[in-house]
Amino acid sequence: MQHSPLLSGGTALLRSLVPGLCAGFLLAGGSGPAAQAEGVLPQTQVQYRVYAHGFKVMDIQASYRLSETQYGVAAHIKTGGFFGLFMKTNLQTSAQGHFNGQAVEPSAYDSVGWSRGRNRHVSLTYRDQMPEVTTLDPAETDRESVPDADKKGAIDTLAVLMDLLHQVRTTQSCDGKAKVFDGMRLSTLSMHSGGLQRIPSGGPLEWGDDALRCDFVAQQTEGFKFNSENSKLRNPQPGRAWFEKVGGAGFVAVRVEIDHPKMGRITIILDGPPQQTT
Q1: Strand partners, 97
Q2: What is the pLDDT of residues 200-245, one digit of tens each?
Q3: For residue 184, is it within any domain?
Q4: Which domain, by its residues, includes 149?
Q5: Is 239 exposed, middle or buried (0-12, 13-18, 19+ CB in 10 A)?
Q6: CA-based Rg of the chain, rounded to a whole angstrom?
Q7: What gap in Å lies between CA 174 and CA 264, rounded to an integer?
Q8: pLDDT by residue (tens digit) across 38-60?
Q9: CA-CA distance, 185 to 265, in Å (whole number)?
Q10: Any domain includes 2
Q11: Of the listed ranges 5-14, 55-64, 159-168, the one predicted with least confidence
């Protein structure tokens, strides 16, 4: 079956941005070495549904452990519903790192699974604020490379949002900028607090009242494919996230909206209350 540019572009966004832009979207199958080191902390498990044009396109299961000093996360991202008939994505991602005051310092990132028609694997490690690609299989020979000088200070998508969740929990705000590198693409992400407001369309009884709104703009700046000079994916992609205290899990991302230049609005909704285990 031939894939349309609309579906291809939408899946690219879901693969690269959705796992990071939704701070708790992490698989309930373990949280990595950094999280295991803090075994006294509860592990928070959440599930999300992703919609585009009213159709469910993706399911995300997640778990994480987060303290004032470190984090460990893992995510399972899988296409589903009508969208799954055209594009298959089945990825598991994980990341570990720590905090130096309010600054996040990632140590490792890994993404492995089926994407864009074959199995793929990307791994990053960090040294002196420099992400190093330790695994990129297969090699992306049809894409421009990102110079080391431009990658300096960049962090992975999961680190960005664990940093955001850490900031929301400690300061009840979400202001800042980040440079994001996923092993192939370099992007910028700017965020600022939108204050407390009622979540659009409400929510279940467990949540749906006033929540902290965080507005953001994501934009890819480097690492484009050679034939993408006129791609709409070069445009800024604004969005909004709402964080609310839900039971004993504390602040959780309960709704995220992303305005995609090809697919329109993508909506990510918390599916059921968070679960906590030791």
Answers
A1: 71, 106
A2: 876 666 777 789 999 999 999 999 989 877 777 788 889 999 999 8
A3: yes
A4: 62-277
A5: buried
A6: 17
A7: 24
A8: 456 788 898 999 888 888 888 99
A9: 22
A10: no
A11: 5-14
Candidates 195, 189, 191; CA nearest to 175 is: 191
92 with 82: CB under 8 angstroms?
Answer: no
Choose between 258 and 260: higher pLDDT. Answer: 258
Please, where are the H alpha helices in the chain? 5-16, 18-21, 32-36, 148-151, 157-171
Residue 25: inside a domain: no
Q: Where are the alpha helices (DSSP H) in 131-269?
A: 148-151, 157-171
Chain length of the chain: 278
Domains identified in the chain, total number:
1
Query: Considering the domain boundaries, does residue 10 fall inside one?
Result: no
Distance separating alpha carbons of residues 235 and 218, to the nearest angstrom: 9
Looking at residue 161, its pLDDT comes to: 82
Count of C-beta atoms within a 10 Å radius of residue 227: 9
Q: Exposure of 167 by Cβ count < 10 A (0-12 exposed, 13-18 middle, 19+ buried)?
A: buried
Amino acid (1-letter code) at residue 75: A
Give the C-alpha distances (Å, rounded to integers) separating 73 from 2, 138, 238, 242. 35, 24, 25, 20
- The mean pLDDT of 109-133, rounded to a whole number, is 94
